Amino acid sequence: MNYLFHLALNYPELKSLVPGNFAFDLCNAQERRTLTAAAAEGARFHRAIDHFASQHPSILELNRNFHPTAGKYAPVASDIVADYLLFINWDKFFTNSYGEFAEWCYEQLSESKTILPQRVIGQVSEMINHRWLEVYTSLEGIEKVLKRTNSKLSFPGDLTTVVPTLVEKEILLGALVCEFFFDCIIERETWLSPQNGKKS
Questions:
Q1: Cα dist. 2→26, 50, 56, 82, 149 in Å?
Q2: Residue 110 within a domain
Q3: Which residue has the higher pLDDT, 4 or 197?
Q4: Less Cβ around it within 10 Å: N or C end of the chain?
Q5: 45 found inside a domain
């Protein structure tokens, strides 16, 4: 999933996983191979959740809802929209406010920039300065993220075409995301469990 989803799975106790978990999608292949030990554990956690998401029934159903308009890029749209839907349902999972969570994220990332690849540090600093987590709090913000992501697609596509479906089915899609996040919490505990060892 996207940034908000991954960071929420580290909040508030798993500070050590934040740098690698957050930076994983910002790093290229070479940078991922050369992550410091402090960041590598978070990267492993990120991969584990991505793998879990790719097979989860709720995410597959989310993709199916977006496929008529987004086509093969439905999973990309799902990644972004899931962050917005998690924000909408924030109080179901956390007692602390979303604002407190965002400040926690900015603090953890500011403190951990020294263990990230040099190229990524600039991107992280810019995202913090722009307080990027606020974009997930509105439909307009998510639409901007979808539009901005269009330029990164390998082939022509328009991710903003999923917005009408999101508006029409927000309750249904939100329920799918809640089901998935709940299962992610269980998967996180399994991943962290000493008897299972940390998965790669």
A1: 11, 9, 15, 8, 12
A2: yes
A3: 4
A4: C
A5: yes
Determine the pLDDT at residue 200.
44
- Single-letter code of the amino acid located at 86: L
Q: Tell me which long-range contacts 156-159 makes (C-beta under 8 A, separation of at least 24).
A: 157/70, 157/71, 157/73, 159/70, 159/73, 159/76, 159/77, 159/80
Contact between 142 and 136 (Cβ < 8 Å): yes
**How far is Cα 174 from Cα 84, in angstroms, rounded to an integer?**
9
- Residue 134: which of 122, 149, 146, 145 has the closest Cα? 145
Cα-based distances in Å from 129 to 123, 175, 197:
10, 32, 36
Over 90: is that where the pLDDT of 144 sits?
Answer: yes
Does the residue 198 lie in any domain?
no
| Residue 154, domain extent | 3-192
Q: How many domains does the chain have?
A: 1
Q: How far apart are CA 62 and CA 141, in angstroms?
A: 20
Q: Looking at residue 171, what is its pLDDT?
A: 98
132 pLDDT band, cuts 50/70/90, is: very high
DSSP annotation of 10 = T
34 in any annotated domain = yes
The per-residue pLDDT of the chain, averaged, comes to 95
Region of 71 please: left (phi>0), alpha (psi -120 to 50) or beta. left
Mean pLDDT of the region 94-118: 95
